[in-house]
Amino acid sequence: MQVNMHEAKSQLSRLGKLAWAGEEVVIAKAGEPYLRLEPYREPMPDRKPGALKGRIWIAPDFDETPPDIIDDFYESRISPDDDD
Fold first, then answer.
1. Pairing label, strands 25-29, 2-4
2. What is the rounded CA–CA span in Å between residue 30 and residue 37?
3. 35 and 27 in contact (C-beta within 8 Å)?
4. Which terminus has fewer CB within 10 Å in the chain: N or C?
5. What is the pTM (predicted TM-score) of this model?
6. Does position 73 have pLDDT exceeding 90, yes or no?
């Protein structure tokens, strides 16, 4: 939704509710998009590499795809109605 500056001044509360509900609200100045109204979100904390070290286990063969799975991708029919 795009509204002009004057309308935004008189209906800011309504526009804020719309923005919180997920509506995209753009405020225009002289008919051109000027501002975007969006809900405030707390910034995410900085990630710290290695925070889960020792708490996650990955199998040694994680990157190895079993041959039967590969065969299913390359040799199966795309849909049951296909005739080979």
1. parallel
2. 17
3. yes
4. C
5. 0.52
6. no
Burial degree of 8 (CB within 10 A; 0-12, 13-18, 19+): buried
What token pair was written down for 19?
């923005």
- Which residues, listed in sequence order, are joined to residue 25 by a DSSP beta bridge? 37
| Rounded Cα–Cα distance for residues 67 and 61 (Å) | 13
Q: Identify the H or E element spanning 24.
A: none
Note the Cα 61 to chain centre separation in Å. 31
Closest among 10, 64, 59, 1 to 33, alpha carbons compared: 1
Q: Degrees (nearest 5) of the Cα angle 66, 58, 76?
A: 20
3-state per-residue secondary structure call for 32-78: EEEEEECCCCCCCCCCCCCCCCCCCCCCCCCCCCCHHHHHHHHHCCC
